[in-house]
Specification:
This protein is an alpha/beta fold. It has helices spanning about 1-15, 40-50, 60-75, 85-95, 110-125, 135-170, and strands at about 30-35, 55, 80, 100-105. Helix content is about 55%, strand content about 10%.
Length: about 170
C-alpha cells in the first residue's frame, strides 16, 4: 500500500507544470547602460543635464540581456545604451515593440545628451496600450504562482494526510 501511495505522489508531482520566476526589477525606470570605460562620461552628462536618470555599469552581456528582459514586462522602463550596443541591437531586433523605449547611443558626450533628451521626452508622453501588450500582467503575474502553490500544497497535504491517517489506523 505504501508503494502505491508513493507512486501516486510521484505521478502527481511529475504532472505539475513548473512555475518560473524571473525576479523583480528594482532599478530606476529610466537608466543608462554603461561599462567601465563609458560609465564616467555618461554619469557626467547625466549630472550636467540634471535629469532623473540612473547610470548602471554592467560587467557582462548576460547581465545586460537580463535587464533588457525586464523592459518587456515594464512599459515604464526607458533605457539608453552607451555600452553593449551589439547586445542591445540584437535584443531590439528580436523585440521591436520595445524600440520606442530603448535607444542606442555612442559614448560621445553630444550623442549621450541627444539620447537623454530623446529618452526623457518619450518618458513624458505616456504609455500607449500597444507598447508591449503586457500592461495587465502586474496583477495576474502574482495570482498564477499563488494559485499553483496553493494547489500543490493542497494536493500534497491531502496525500500525506491520507497516508498518515491510514498508517495511524493500522
Amino acid at each position: 500500500m505504501k508503494i502505491k501511495v508513493i507512486c501516486l505522489l510521484f505521478v502527481l508531482l511529475g504532472t505539475i507544470s513548473t512555475v518560473s520566476a524571473h525576479g523583480i526589477d528594482v532599478t530606476y525606470p529610466t537608466i543608462v547602460i554603461a561599462d567601465d570605460s563609458t560609465g564616467m562620461q555618461a554619469k557626467k552628462v547625466v549630472d550636467e543635464m540634471g535629469v532623473e536618470v540612473k547610470v548602471y555599469k554592467f560587467k557582462s552581456t548576460s547581465d545586460v540581456e537580463h535587464h533588457l528582459e525586464h523592459s518587456l514586462t515594464n512599459p515604464d522602463k526607458r533605457i539608453l545604451a552607451v555600452a553593449y550596443q551589439d547586445t542591445v541591437n540584437e535584443f531590439l531586433a528580436k523585440n521591436p515593440q520595445a524600440s520606442n523605449r530603448i535607444f542606442v547611443s555612442s559614448a560621445d558626450e553630444m550623442d549621450i545628451k541627444n539620447g537623454l533628451i530623446l529618452l526623457t521626452s518619450n518618458n513624458n508622453s505616456g504609455n500607449s496600450s500597444n507598447d508591449t501588450g503586457l500592461n495587465s500582467t502586474s496583477s495576474s503575474g502574482f495570482l498564477i504562482p499563488l494559485l499553483a502553490g496553493l494547489f500543490i500544497g493542497i494536493m500534497a497535504g491531502l496525500g500525506l494526510g491520507a497516508f498518515w491517517m491510514k498508517r495511524k489506523l493500522s
